[in-house]
Design brief:
17% strand, binds zinc ion, L-fuculose-1-phosphate Aldolase, binds Dihydroxyacetone, 10 helices, 2 domains, single chain
Length: 270
């Protein structure tokens, strides 16, 4: 058995949580990550038959039965993951149609998965239904994006168009745009179901007055999506109250989409 602390999925999640903390997106215990692993990958580092604990999930996810996930723990600080990964992270397998999670490694202090586990698992199922290569769901609290949800119309088309207009790369990086949920109680199955529904048409779901969910095939893609949205929101918050002399026009957005061979969300460019 190889040392799990050297597993690429552990070293990369440690690097990413550290980086996100430094960005100021994950104060205190804010934010969470889940990473779907192949069984063969997990088997190199843990005994698949040695279940440490079985933890009820409080929901069902038949599409994820038998699937392995590396997840951040509830109450854990992203700031500290690098100092104590075996306490901050857990590797688990969903069983019984997603009703239970079998812990195979981690959560060494007796902890459990993130309070946002329902949103993560339901989002994985939704993304896998449209992209079988999806592996990551990532949630955090980027400051400028959060600020923007207080002062901008939350209509998804309007919100996306503003982001696209803030940096030339935005329409290329997230051509499907962002979906937006109004404020909802976090940690619940209800916000999980609403997030998953929104995940069927975009890799990014904004939670108004809270943060954002991103999904992707690897951590770099997912982190990069959120980084790009946050950059656009930062520009917006700098210029929102200033007279706008120039913008990126719809015809320029189309030029970008054509040149970089991406298909923007139907009807979102005039
Ligand atoms: O894990 O970010 O949404 C703490 C949170 C809740
Ligand atoms: Zn949060």
């Amino acid at each position: 058995m190889k040392d799990i602390l050297n597993a690429p999925f552990v070293t990369e999640i440690v690097r990413t949580t550290t980086n996100m903390y430094r960005h100021g997106w994950d104060e205190r215990n804010g934010g969470n990550i889940s990473w779907m692993l192949d069984e063969a990958e997990a088997a190199q580092y843990v005994d698949l038959n040695a279940v440490i604990r079985t933890i009820p999930t409080g929901f069902q996810a038949p599409a994820l039965d038998g699937i392995y996930f590396l997840v951040t723990g509830t109450g854990e600080y992203f700031k500290n993951v690098r100092y104590d990964p075996v306490k901050s992270l857990g590797l688990l397998r969903l069983t019984d149609g997603g009703r239970n999670a079998q812990l195979l490694w981690g959560f060494a202090g007796g902890g459990t998965f993130t309070s946002e586990f329902p949103s993560h698992m339901m989002s994985h199922a939704a993304r896998l239904s449209v992209d079988p290569a999806n592996r990551i769901v990532l949630h955090c609290h980027p400051s400028n994006l959060l600020a923007m949800t207080f002062v901008h119309d939350l209509d998804e088309r309007a919100f996306t168009r503003t982001l696209w207009q803030m940096c030339s790369e935005c329409v290329v990086v997230f051509p499907e745009g962002v979906n937006v949920l109004p404020w909802m109680l976090y940690g619940t199955n209800e916000i999980g179901e609403a997030t998953a529904e929104k995940m069927k048409t975009a890799r990014l779901v904004v939670w108004a007055q809270h943060g954002i969910y991103g999904a992707g095939r690897d951590l770099d893609e997912t982190f990069g999506l959120i980084e790009t949205v946050e950059k656009a929101a930062e520009i917006y918050m700098k210029i929102a109250r200033l007279p706008r002399l120039n913008t990126i026009t719809d015809s320029q957005l189309r030029q970008l989409a054509d040149y970089f061979h991406v298909t923007p969300r139907e009807g979102w460019i005039d």
